[in-house]
Amino acid sequence: MPIRNALIKPLVRSSWRKGPGYVSHWFGKRCDAAGLTTVEVPRLRRVYVHKRVAEAFREVLLSIAAAGIDHLIDLSDYGGTYCCRKVRGGSAASPHSWGIAIDLNVHHFLASDDTEIVKTGRTNFHCAAHEVAPSLEALAPFFNAWGFTWGGDWNTKYLDPMHFEATELTVKILEGGLSKDEHRYIETIREALGMPPLGYGTGQAIKVVHWVTGDMLAEFELPAGIRRLCENGDHIEDQGKLYVE
Ligand SMILES: [Zn+2]
Questions:
Q1: How many A from CA of 96 to the centre of ligand 1?
Q2: How much distance in Å is there from the Cα of 183 to the middle of ligand 1?
Q3: Is residue 66 assigned to a domain?
Q4: Does 154 lie in the same domain as 240?
Q5: 207 CA distance to ligand 1 centroid (A)?
Q6: Centre of ligand 1 from the C-alpha of residue 102, in Å
Q7: Which of 114, 134, 147, 152 is positioned for an S-S bond with 169, CB 3.0–4.6 A?
């Protein structure tokens, strides 16, 4: 069942403008090797990506492998991650210049007889909606679950189904800071995929509060790997507070 996630939008690609809507706000300068790292991942072995979202690339590929669909990634048609360049046919900086995007199954299409085909002479950049390869549609929710936007979800003119790109949601999933709505949205995607709920954010400060007196008893940072503290996590989501007797 494809999950359409037009809500997860790409950041505006600007190498100098600052503000939460811009790539540079979250990922710094483009084509900056200091911001990049290599991370080991299933299927693709290793990818060269932005440090701030490297763990998310790994988690996405782990979850794709765990779901048993990593064979859908065509190793002979891998388009890569980091590349210091402009967008195809345009003058704006490509998100690949920050190492936050990955291109998969670059020449895969859905043919009119509903079979997936590979067209060697044409990439699926700017293809029609009815040409989007089912393999990419199947992989997309796993990227969405980590806050990546999918080029197959964009409007018709800019459809780019090979392309998956980290956003500020990816950063917030890893570092904390998702709004309540964003958290719910990501959890809905994860639930549909049978994935465990998100942790409440590596490094997120949790206040332990006496539920009667309201006294703060302790404050600590949640270690990585904690997936859920309690079934009703509203206070943790809203206020970073864990109430105890
Ligand atoms: Zn791309």
A1: 6
A2: 26
A3: yes
A4: no
A5: 41
A6: 6
A7: 147
Residue 29 to residue 18: CA distance in whole angstroms: 11
**Secondary structure (3-state) at 37:** strand
Report CA(166)–ligand 1 centroid distance (Å). 11
What distance in Å separates the CA atoms of residue 211 and residue 128, rounded to the nearest whole number? 56
Same domain, 144 and 92: yes
pTM score over 0.85:
no
Q: How far is the CA of 108 from the centre of ligand 1 (A)?
A: 14
Contact 114, 106 (CB under 8 A): no
Domain that holds residue 240: 199-245
Q: What is the DSSP string of 93-139?
A: BPGGGGT-EEE-STTEEE-TTS-EEE-TT--STT--GGG--HHHHHH
Whether 100 and 157 map to the same domain: the answer is yes
- CA dihedral 152→69→118→110, nearest 10 degrees, is -50
- The CA-CA-CA angle for residues 9, 13, 16, to 5°, reads 135
Residue 78 belongs to some domain of the structure:
yes
The predicted structure's pLDDT at residue 2: 38
In a domain, 158, yes or no: yes
Residue 170: band (very low, low, confident or very high) from pLDDT cuts 50, 70, 90: very high
